[in-house]
Amino acid sequence: MLEGGILMSFQTLNPLPLLIGTAFRKRNHQCKARTNSSSTSLQLSSKVPLTDRSGNSWEQGSNTSVITRPNTVGVIGGVSVLSTLIFLEKLACWSSRNGKECPPFVVCSDPVLGKVLPIRHPYRSSHRSRIDQVKMNQELVIENLRRKRNILQLSGAGCFVMPCHLSHAWHSEISEDSSLPFLHVGECMAMELKNSNLKPIHASSSVRIGLLTTDSVLVASYYQHKLQNQGFEVVLLDKATEEHMMVPAVEALNRKDIEGARNLLRIAIHVLLMRAVNVVILASDDLVGILPHNDPLLRKCIDPMDALARSTIQWAETTQEAMAESCDIQLLPLQYQSPPMFLFSQLPPSFLLPKCNKWIHAN
To answer: Which residue stretches does the UniProt record annotate as biased composition, category Low complexity (predicted)?
Structure first.
């Protein structure tokens, strides 16, 4: 999946793994999983020294960035590592179309965040207890995410993205005093919908957008704000319907009752569609993965992380073009000062890779 990368950690209060990705090379069959017939190995080491092309070591606090291209994307990992990997796959696939290359990126992901902000509580625990735990630890979360942002900036990032719905609840606190662009998933989603020129289903009303999330208290508010700023009316499930649909859907997932979760999600989507919404935003990684890819209801649903990936690619391409114009040189394929260091040497046949919203099995 990744052509090259490094994993390392800095000596901070909680060491944070850092992944540096080089360009995805153009190939005849892009974005396909590859395996090797020899023995399987996956080695990630935080003790591998990071060096430049000349062999000089790079350390935190130095003035030398790991990647020096202005269009380098800094990816702040959130609660789910899998969500970060899926986002990177989208970034790679979509930016590599038409013979182009994926922009350089640096990823900082910390598994500790998943312990402070558990992805899901066991189904026997209440939904409210999870919200209370998140609020109780939010200062630690903000500190963690701000530290990641600073590490990525030291590494040469030119902008920041967070492929995590929950982390965006503190986007303003994390992005304050940053001199670099910090894309917001809600804003990217709202701008795409605005540019699509949707027409209201009922002529007497404005365009209505449905919103489903498993974290209504923390996530729904910022999506509402961004969508309303673009003139949309946001439609949510009422409290009773949410308690009888969304909470049991998450509980069903925890019990591995996929069919039960699908049925509950289908009902929730239909409830919003009956209220004359144009589309339904699935603002949760859990919700995006519940329905099968061929379910006709998905044609009425949107994954906001798709919009974030497209906006990230647009920023990187625009920045690259501006750099080329300012230097008065012909736009050439990206070149990097730091040599590629392989992160994934071989992948096992059973390793699942996300491929642009579809799961493929590496053979």
So the answer is: 37-46
The C-alpha atoms of residue 237 and residue 271 are separated, in whole angstroms, by 8
In the structure encoding, which two tokens stand for residue 159, read together?
Answer: 């902008």
Q: Percentage of the chain with pLDDT > 90?
A: 45
CA distances from 98 to 26, 29, 94, 102, 336 (A): 10, 12, 9, 11, 21
| Bridge pairing between strands 7-9 and 17-21 | antiparallel
**DSSP strand E in 259-357: where?**
279-282, 301-302, 352-355
Domain with CATH 3.40.50.1860 in the chain: 7-182+305-361, 188-302
Contacts of 15 (CB under 8 A, 6+ apart): 9, 46
- Topology (CATH level 3) of domain 7-182+305-361: Rossmann fold (3.40.50)
For residue 15, CA distances in Å to 11, 108, 128, 148 come to: 6, 10, 31, 10
**Contact present, 144 and 112 (Cβ < 8 Å):** yes
What is the distance between the alpha carbons of residues 91 and 308, in angstroms, rounded to a whole number? 9
Cβ-count burial of 260 within 10 angstroms (0-12 exposed, 13-18 middle, 19+ buried)? middle
Task: Give per-residue pLDDT as tens, 288-341.
Answer: 989 999 999 999 999 999 999 999 999 999 998 888 777 654 545 544 443 333
Indicate the fold that domain 188-302 takes in CATH: Rossmann fold (3.40.50)
SS3 58: coil
DSSP H or E stretch at residue 192:
helix 185-195
